[in-house]
Design goal:
Chain lengths: 146, 164
């Protein structure tokens, strides 16, 4: 997932959480970057017609932005679910964040063929827990992580 | 500096090991599917497709062994093949392609995905300044050789598909 997709996913989640435009500060916090970096990328997303920025209010994704953001969120859910249920990784949220940049959508799609994802994905993503609400972490396979 | 502020680098042995494990799973998926197709189409199997599938399964097993060698060097366990095989069987039984075209297309997706994965992984390792407990040159040589074979796999399947 490239950097732009990581931003789109984050804006989408923050926008839902805040029930309105996502503030640059919240986006920067969620991604662990500086507000200046966030602003720069938001500018790029605006140029590509994926987001709109309103001064003092924040960022709102356009319809095209939402489509791409939902795809990115789905890819992220696949990575989390794969790590938790196939590789039995306990710290799957942290690892998903670390690895998402290296896992491409096409790769995630293939990993998706061996996991049980719910049809409502990615609407089941819960920003509070940073994970899919349907993810059964307790049902981890017998193999220990290491 | 936006590009590096969100991590696109591999910073530790653990991350590298995890990515190599994902590579192993992708190879296992290819192997299990090729085997599955091979068996399910048994009755009317065409020699060309048969050879292609058995070569693909063999090559995946070999890639898997090479990746296992690397993650062993990192002190991490591999992913047990029988578990992945049963997952593939459980999921794949529902969406099984029922003709040669479907099988070939699936095989093409497998090879393309694997190629893309190794390509991204190599790029991420090249962009990383972390020290790994495996020799960096050996790591990159191994992954580049595997990537090359995936690229050859893509052209082989494409050739067969175009001829049909």
């Amino acid at each position: 997932m490239n950097t732009a997709d990581q931003y789109l996913k984050t804006i989408y989640v923050v926008q839902k959480q805040e029930d309105g435009p996502a503030s640059t500060g919240s986006i920067a916090d969620a991604l662990g970057v500086s507000p200046a970096s966030a602003n720069e990328m938001i500018g790029k997303l605006e140029e590509r017609g994926l987001a709109e920025h309103e001064k003092y209010k924040g960022v709102r994704l356009t319809d095209d932005g939402i489509v791409k953001a939902r795809d990115a969120l789905q890819t992220y859910c696949i990575i989390e679910r794969f790590l938790a249920n196939v590789l039995a990784v306990e710290e799957f949220r942290e690892e998903a964040h670390e690895l998402e940049a290296v896992i491409d959508d096409t790769v995630a799609e293939r990993l998706d063929t061996i996991i049980d994802r719910q049809p409502e994905c990615p609407d089941c993503f819960d920003p509070e827990t940073d994970a899919c609400a349907c993810l059964e972490v307790a049902a981890v396979p017998a193999e220990p992580e290491r | 500096m936006v590009e590096v502020s969100v991590s696109q680098r591999i910073t530790s042995d653990d991350q590298l090991a995890r990515l190599l494990q994902i590579g192993i799973v992708l190879e296992e998926v290819v192997e299990a599917r090729a085997h599955h197709h091979y068996e399910s189409l048994d009755a009317e199997l065409d020699e060309e497709v048969e050879t292609l599938l058995s070569d693909a399964a063999e090559e995946s097993a070999e890639h898997r062994a090479r990746l296992e060698g690397l993650i062993e060097g990192l002190g991490v366990d591999s992913v047990p093949f029988d578990e992945i095989e049963s997952l593939v069987d459980a999921r794949y039984g529902r969406t099984q392609p029922d003709d040669f075209d479907g099988v070939l297309y699936d095989q093409l997706c497998n090879e393309e995905t694997a190629y893309k994965f190794y390509d991204d992984l190599i790029e991420a390792i090249e962009g990383a300044d972390a020290e790994f407990s495996v020799d960096r040159d050996e790591l990159l040589d191994t992954l580049e050789a595997i990537r090359e074979e995936e690229a050859e796999g893509v052209s082989e399947v494409t050739e067969v598909m175009e001829r049909r």
